[in-house]
Amino acid sequence: MFYQTIILGAGAAGMMCAAYAGAGTLVLDHAKNPGEKIRISGGGRCNFTNLDVTPENYLSANPHFCKSALARYTQWDFIELISKHGIAWHEKTLGQLFCDGSAKQIVAMLVAELKSAGAELWLNSAVAKVDTHDTGFSLEVMQEGTLRKLTCANLVLATGGKSIPKMGATGLSYDIAQQFDLPLLPTRAGLVPFTFDQERFKPLAGTALPSRLSNARASFDEALLFTHRGLSGPAVLQLSSYWREGEDISVNLDPENQLFNTLRKQRQTEGRRQLNTELAHLLPSRLVEFLGQTLPLTQRLADQSDDALQTLCANLRDWRLKPSGTEGYRTAEVTLGGIDTNALSSKTMEAKTKPGLYAIGEAVDVTGWLGGYNFQWAWASGHAAGVAI
Length: 389
Ligand code: FDA
Prior knowledge:
Layout: E1 2-8, H1 12-21, E2 25-28, H2 36-40, E3 47-50, E4 58-59, H3 66-72, H4 75-84, E5 89-91, E6 96-99, H5 104-116, E7 120-122, E8 125-133, E9 136-143, E10 146-157, H6 172-179, E11 184-190, E12 194-195, E13 208-214, E14 219-226, E15 230-232, H7 234-240, E16 249-252, H8 259-269, H9 275-279, H10 285-291, H11 306-317, E17 319-321, E18 325-326, E19 334-339, E20 357-359, E21 367-368, H12 373-388
Parallel strand pairs: 1-2, 1-10, 2-7, 10-20
Antiparallel strand pairs: 3-6, 4-21, 5-6, 8-9, 9-10, 11-19, 12-15, 12-18, 13-14, 13-16, 14-15, 16-17
Helix pairs in contact: 1-5, 1-12, 3-12, 8-11
Residues 8-14, 28-31, 36-37, 40-42, 46-47, 126-127, 158-160, 163-164, 168-170, 172, 333-334, 361-363, 372-375, 378 line the site of dihydroflavine-adenine dinucleotide.
């Protein structure tokens, strides 16, 4: 059976690509449902894009690569699409847009779009073999127990990254890219919680507070959450994409830089109180208790010189921690690295050395921040390949 285009992966990027590639396109997925990551994303409401998308919100060995696709299919284009389908949405915070109802509406919309464009969707279909063929490519696919031999002119790699293998993530796009000599960049888990030895933060599990998390490469002002295994929350997930094994991170527990002035003022009226009592008005009390294990917080406020208060506040603004690792692909929202963008056209996503071969979405070395940026990349890169095909 010949198809003009076969897209591997009925996720965000693959279905978007099919909606533009149109008739003569087949989308294959080994899962029993399309768009499973869309369905579970954003706590079931899918943070489908962001009001403020810029190339600076993406990590890649080539930071310029994402510009063309993002400029040609913007967040406004996607908002227009979902509005056409009557899907209600709202901004939660920091420009992040979510469905009012359910993420399933986005999946249903993409399936409807690809079908109305004339594309076909096969689920429960595992790719057994891919080869070069006179027409372009040949594939052997096990579709619900039956071996199907397919040929196509264009093959689109859209099977995503390695994150959450339990949900069916595989390295198929990487394997096929390698088979056709496209270079790969090392992959690692991104947007993922940090772990620490000996359940260091277990006594604080569940405590959350605003923070600034930084390292030499990046800094994020967002919430920090202590967990049984370590640190999580938006600030941590964001920084994890910029972190390398063995490095320190800096946690600023006073991102608004208010502690020093507040404590100084309190010293005049509440001088007999202990530091930890005053700090517990400004930070979660369990955290103050925990910090008291290493900082002299049982001293009286009146006994603190300005210098002593400065030193204390400086410690709280630069709490150095060394994660032992991350939770890895088991819980990571994304995979960093992947198919090297130098091997692809930034306009069409087609491989420079293998005409007819395309790579889109998370399989490519373009990774967004937390906040709807990864879906926007999936929509934009899927659109770029779809219109080019
Ligand atoms: P995606 O993973 O969506 O799709 C790949 C498809 O390929 C899947 O359907 C899979 O079954 C299929 N496949 C894999 N291997 C195959 C094989 N061997 N044979 C056949 N098919 C195969 N992003 C964001 O912007 N906002 C958000 O709210 C969230 N939330 C979120 C929550 C969680 C828990 C996770 C894990 C991730 C997110 N993300 C996110 C990230 C976002 O889900 C991700 O970046 C996109 O889904 C990537 O789209 P792709 O189409 O590239 O891959």
